[in-house]
Specification:
This protein is α/β, with parallel strands linked by helices. Helix content is 48%, strand content 13%. The strands form five sheets. Strands 9-10-11-6-12-13 form a six-stranded mixed β-sheet, sandwiched between helices. It has a four-stranded antiparallel β-sheet with strand order 5-4-7-8, covered by helices on one side. Strands 1-2-3 form a three-stranded antiparallel β-sheet, with helices on one face. It is found in: Membrane. Its main location: membrane.
């Protein structure tokens, strides 16, 4: 009943396929038995040594069973966007009403059609290529087929085996490879693919099987020689451009998808590298996948690997068919392709020439429609339909279940046979939203981030150097402060600058997520992991570095400045610095999720932190801030750590900071001779009816705190508020990812 057929290839591993023979008299219960049988086939495909069930019926053992077929069809795809005209000063002048339609349209948004009634079809084992000049709609068509256009904006239908694909199902059975190579630079090729396997392959699959899948994929991609080489970037030498592109493809096909979409996979590559990439895609298609890609200008060798072509011009189809039909098509159009000339180059050049003419490509579009109708009438190009199946009522989910059973979709759902009343059996496909539980995702993300960071120690080194140098400068400027009124004022300045430094130092982390943004969007677009897992992992990874920086700054400044509090004071000082780093890092991380550009992000961060410092209570006390700005005082991230360190320093009620004649310090009377100050102090004493000597304490730490308006929260409450701000901004970061990374066109 079931037979495993291995497709041998010199450069690729074996792929297992389950063939289904035609059984016109099979009962409904046979389907359940078949699924039980193919379930065992899947175990063999992934390396399980469990014995396969014996064939259910020896009469059918000699029948060669076809692979479960898939046909992707799309019909009348239309997509338009609103484009507002450029701002013109003349448009701002009120105009009188007019019947002239051109004048009436001034200032109104225009509609631009990016796709206009595009139709086509392809099947597993084939590569469909979408060609056209820049702006023709190639990437838009790929996005439409991959469900990357918002629901309601795209008109038309996309079906697999005649059934409309649900978004959740499509995410499981498909993969999308972006045009840019979005990879972590300090990971090796093997590590990159292994992390992709950890994300996309289910937890139930042993790690040894995942490693086997990665090794097989490395061989399939033809990058065995580069397996232990880092990806590299501008500052680190790594693999070549063609190898990077193949690694990018490998990440998205680690789970062996049924549908594979690629946006210009050969862009920026030389002819040889482009050919190698498309050759890999051909192997993937032959393993039972449908491959659809956009390509700018394929070479003759690349063209030989393509099965179907769609030429677009400004959103219209100007040709749809096989590469072999191109010469006849253009010959009948009246522009035959010269011998020994690249067919696609000739076609694209002709299309560009027509686009520059007065009539445009309208004539070619109309000719293509007539040519397609003529081919259908002559039965030269019948519509694609899945080959005859022994189960004509096989639904799409049942077909996917059978495909899973033969080894496709390693992270896909599990197929199961369900027994109904009357002896009927059907299949159910359990489609998991994610391949792994959240704690596995957090563990894998954390491991990957720490590995990538550990290989770039210069990043932490620069931050550490900035913190230590700042601490050293502060320590030498505010060296061993005394307890005089001037010492108090200098302490206030030190604390304000030190606490704001914690937040400004965190601005250096702004590019971290901006560099990972598109990697994150690519991986979450097809549910590699949850957004919440990324947020939690991002926070966990940041904590060790923050602890290290906090201890370094505290050790540099605490004893040098002469701060008070003893061991417990030092501990709290370290904690509030850590809390400030945590809050500042979370704030900058949130902004990186909202602002897409580094320079714009830096501008916003510096401006907002300046406002936080202004309203922290150092430059102006709380009771002097206008009522209409008091809300910003309570929102200031600098306020709470600043008040916390003040209370930590001036919490000793027995410690005196102003004695006797020191009351005249920081005033014009401070310049008087000591004898004159004593006489003035005696005069003040007699006037007040009390005795004030040169040793009388006039202001303690509690008085300093009251003067600064630090009376509402204790230092521990200030610490908790600072930490809470950090969690608050992490939650906002999550929502910014949730709302801002839909990865779909509107």
């Amino acid at each position: 009943m079931a037979r495993i057929v291995a497709a041998d290839d010199d450069d690729t591993p074996q792929f297992y396929s389950m063939e289904l023979n035609s059984i016109s008299s099979a009962s409904d219960s046979t389907l359940g038995q078949l699924l039980k049988n193919v379930s065992d086939v899947r175990k063999v495909a992934v390396g399980d040594e469990t014995p396969v069930h014996e064939a259910l019926n020896r009469d059918y053992e000699d029948d060669l069973m076809r692979t479960v077929p898939f046909v992707l069809s799309f019909d009348s795809l239309t997509y338009s966007v609103s484009v507002r005209p450029k701002l013109d000063f003349r448009n701002l002048i009120p105009r009188r009403k007019t019947e002239d339609p051109e004048i009436a349209q001034v200032g109104r948004p225009n509609t631009k059609t990016l796709l206009n009634n595009i139709s086509g079809e392809t099947r597993d084992g084939e590569i469909m290529a979408v060609l056209g000049a820049s702006g023709s709609g190639k990437s838009t068509l790929i996005d439409a087929l991959a469900n990357r256009i918002a629901k309601g904006s795209l008109k038309g239908t996309v079906k697999l085996n005649g059934e409309t694909l649900q978004s959740r199902m499509l995410k499981v059975i498909s993969a999308y490879v972006m045009q840019d190579d979005l990879l972590f630079p300090m990971l090796t090729v093997e590590e990159t693919l292994m992390f992709a396997a950890e994300f996309r392959l289910p937890r139930s699959l042993p790690k040894s099987k995942k490693k086997l899948r990665v090794q097989a994929l490395i061989d399939q991609l033809g990058i065995r020689n580069a397996a232990t080489t880092i990806i590299g970037d501008e500052g680190h030498r790594g693999i070549s451009g063609g190898e990077r592109r193949r690694v990018s493809i490998g990440i998205d096909i680690i789970h062996d998808p049924i549908l594979l979409f690629l946006d210009e996979p050969t862009s920026g590559l030389d002819s040889t590298s482009a050919f190698m990439v498309v050759k890999v895609l051909k192997r993937i298609a032959q393993s039972g996948s449908i491959v659809i890609m956009s390509i700018h200008q394929p070479s003759h060798r690349v063209l030989g690997l393509l099965d179907r072509l769609i030429f677009l011009s400004r959103g219209h189809t100007v040709y749809s068919g096989s590469p072999a039909s191109l010469p006849r098509f253009f010959a009948e159009f009246g522009n035959p392709i010269p011998e020994n000339e690249n067919r696609t180059e000739f076609a694209l050049d002709l299309i560009r020439e027509l686009e520059g003419s007065a009539e445009g490509t309208r004539g070619l579009v109309e000719f293509n429609k007539k040519w397609q109708e003529m081919k259908k009438q002559n039965n030269r190009q019948p519509p694609l339909t899945p080959p005859a199946s022994p189960y004509p009522n096989l639904t799409l989910k049942e077909a996917i279940s059978a495909s899973i059973s033969r080894g496709k979709l390693v992270s896909g759902g599990e197929s199961a046979a369900i027994q109904h009343g009357g002896g009927n059996t059907s299949t159910a496909l359990a489609v998991p939203a994610f391949a792994n539980p959240i704690w596995i995702e957090i563990k894998t993300l954390t491991k990957r981030s720490m590995l990538n960071s550990r290989r770039q120690p210069e990043l932490l080194g620069i931050r550490l150097a900035a913190v230590v140098i700042t601490g050293f400068i502060l320590a030498t400027v505010f060296w061993r402060l005394d307890n005089s009124p001037k010492g108090v004022q200098e302490r206030l300045g030190f604390f304000a600058f030190a606490m704001s430094t914690m937040f400004y130092t965190c601005a250096e982390t702004l590019p971290v997520f901006l560099q990972e943004r598109y990697i994150f969007m690519r991986e979450t677009a097809y549910n590699a992991y949850r957004r919440s897992s990324y947020v939690l992992s991002h926070a966990i990874v940041s904590i060790p570095a923050l602890i290290f920086l906090s201890v370094a700054f505290a050790a540099t400044t605490y004893w040098a400045v002469g701060l008070d509090g003893g061991p417990m004071g030092l501990l709290f000082y370290c904690l509030i610095i850590l809390a400030s780093f945590w809050s500042g890092s979370s704030f900058v991380t949130f902004l990186s999720g909202v602002v897409p550009h580094v320079m714009l992000g830096y501008t916003i961060v510096v401006a907002i932190l300046a406002y936080f410092l202004l309203f922290s209570g150092f430059f102006i006390n709380r009771n002097r801030i206008p009522d209409y700005w008091i809300w910003f005082h309570y929102m200031s991230l600098v306020k709470y750590p600043y008040e916390a360190v003040l209370q930590n320093e001036f919490s000793d009620a027995t410690k005196c900071f102003v004695r006797g004649v020191q009351i005249f310090d920081n005033t014009p009377l401070g310049e008087l001779p000591e004898v004159m100050k004593l006489r003035l102090l005696d005069t003040v004493s007699r006037s007040l009816g009390t005795t004030i000597s040169s040793s009388t304490c006039l202001a303690t730490g509690a008085d300093i705190l009251r003067q600064q308006g630090v009376t509402q929260l204790s230092k521990w409450n200030c610490l908790l508020v600072t930490v809470a701000f950090g969690f608050f901004f992490r939650v906002l970061f999550y929502f910014s990812l949730l709302l801002g990374s839909k990865n779909k066109r509107s």
